[in-house]
Amino acid sequence: MGQPEKVFLLQSPVEPVPTGAKPEGSMELLSTPHSIEVNNITCDSFRISWTMENSDLERVTHYFIDLNKKENKNSNKFKHRDVPTKLVAKAVPLPMTVRGHWFLSPRTEYSVAVQTAVKQSDGEYLVSGWSETVEFCTGDYAKEHLAQLQEKAEQIAGRMLRFSVFYRNHHKEYFQHARTHCGNMLQPYLKDNSGSHGSPTSGMLHGVFFSCNTEFNTGQPPQDSPYGRWRFQIPAQRLFNPSTNLYFADFYCMYTAYHYAILVLAPKGSLGDRFCRDRLPLLDIACNKFLTCSVEDGELVFRHAQDLILEVIYTEPVDLSLGTLGEISGHQLMSLSTADAKKDPSCKTCNISVGR
């Protein structure tokens, strides 16, 4: 297997072949590549190979790769507006790895075609025809990428503050529906696409979102909320205890100074726990920078990071009878809603050097 070859952008990415390329000339024409195969796909790389005539193997000096992003309604509109992208690489033994977070996004559909070329003594190229087009989709962040996000989040998490309840804000009708049609239970629902584009939880993990942040001066949950004027509060130990696993899921911002961390609470052995185990970094519940549960003087004590807005996903149904429901007195701050919020890809605090 050949070593991965570094791939470069051409000067004119929208041109079908480099300037000076000529499909015909005094040299024997190149065969058209065929039988394209794409595999080993990650969030910001893929491996590609194809078949060409034996007579071309020693002649070809360069490969040209035509990479096109397939637009759809869920596309990340904040990045990669320059695609289609034409890439050039020196010829190496196939398969070769194409890697680049500046032109590949996670969870994104692409089409790819290839062309081979011989660079001639006058600097011009003899090129083959374009191969057939193959489609593929890039992957989610892997654990090592999430570990990088976790490290960045830890740097700004701040000191830990005590809290005693998790809370969920919504409209009155939401809670009435839970009581009337869901057996008095808050049912898990599919996480939306808010946060990092490569988060493995988006559109995959079911859970109930809770908050736990408190006001510095009162130690109590804030009276304002972007999600509704009715609040369900539940003692922290009902959701978070030594029988619960805690996972780090995401770190992002929305073009503001506020930064958000998404954490997952999953009862050990549950379906949600099994989902997270293979995809998310596991945190020590008693010792981490975000959310802790520890025993002090024989009692469970809970703390949250002061300088992050924590979004906590609990993966199981929650019984409303285990907490209290009431109306808050503050305002509904819609500007702070994170529903389907897109991450700022230019923020140096919460982005890593892979697809956003």
From TrEMBL:
<dbReference type="Pfam" id="PF19281">
    <property type="entry name" value="PHYHIP_C"/>
</dbReference>
<dbReference type="InterPro" id="IPR045545">
    <property type="entry name" value="PHYIP/PHIPL_C"/>
</dbReference>
<dbReference type="InterPro" id="IPR013783">
    <property type="entry name" value="Ig-like_fold"/>
</dbReference>
<feature type="domain" description="Fibronectin type-III">
    <location>
        <begin position="32"/>
        <end position="141"/>
    </location>
</feature>
<dbReference type="GO" id="GO:1990782">
    <property type="term" value="F:protein tyrosine kinase binding"/>
</dbReference>
<dbReference type="GO" id="GO:0005737">
    <property type="term" value="C:cytoplasm"/>
</dbReference>
<dbReference type="InterPro" id="IPR036116">
    <property type="entry name" value="FN3_sf"/>
</dbReference>
<protein>
    <recommendedName>
        <fullName>Phytanoyl-CoA hydroxylase-interacting protein</fullName>
    </recommendedName>
</protein>
<comment type="subunit">
    <text>Interacts with PHYH and ADGRB1.</text>
</comment>
<comment type="function">
    <text>Its interaction with PHYH suggests a role in the development of the central system.</text>
</comment>
<keyword id="KW-0325">Glycoprotein</keyword>
<comment type="similarity">
    <text>Belongs to the PHYHIP family.</text>
</comment>
<dbReference type="GO" id="GO:0008104">
    <property type="term" value="P:intracellular protein localization"/>
</dbReference>
<dbReference type="InterPro" id="IPR003961">
    <property type="entry name" value="FN3_dom"/>
</dbReference>
<dbReference type="InterPro" id="IPR042868">
    <property type="entry name" value="PHYHIP/PHYHIPL"/>
</dbReference>
